[in-house]
Amino acid sequence: MKNGGTSTCCPPTTHPPGGAGLHDEYDEPVQAAPSRSGLPRLVELGSTTCIPCQMMKPILEELTIEYDGRLVVEFVDVHREPKKAERFNIHVIPTQVFLDADGKELFRHEGFFPKEDILAKWAELGFDFAQR
To answer: Which of 90, 114, 131, 102 is nearest to 7 (CA)?
Structure first.
């Protein structure tokens, strides 16, 4: 499965078979709980067994270290935390959800997402993590 030239894995197993509970592209953006740290968040929904998800792991680790105190990076395993994953109404994994400090969804991406593109998207959304 491809998404704008990026690799995606498989549909998550957070919904019953037959499409019950699936949401289409016109759904309202997710409103998550506000960040306790007062920082924007990048939430990756994936699995430890998904190849594109595994490719994202070092990128997420780098972002966590390099932007500590400016960005919260969270990984949700859709198989281990299905209720948490279900709140994000995802269709495939990995999915990256960009949230502001209030928990409002700003953007989402499906598939592998290079670090440079993640940072460019945050900058486009008005967050410059290069400045302290």
So the answer is: 114
Half-sphere exposure of 127 (CA within 13 A, CB side): 21
Question: What is the β-pairing status of strands 95-99 and 72-77?
Answer: unpaired
Lookup result for tokens 């594109």: 52
Mind listing the domains of the chain with CATH numbers?
Answer: 45-124 (3.40.30.10)
pLDDT digits (tens, 9 = 90+) for 33-75: 556 678 999 999 999 999 999 999 999 999 999 999 999 999 9
Asked, as a colleague might, if the bond just before 94 is cis with ω within 30 of 0, I would say: yes
Three-state secondary structure string covering 41-57? EEEEEECCCCHHHHHHH
pLDDT at 36: 66
Closest CA to 92 of 107, 80, 81, 108: 108
- The single-letter code of the amino acid at 94 is P
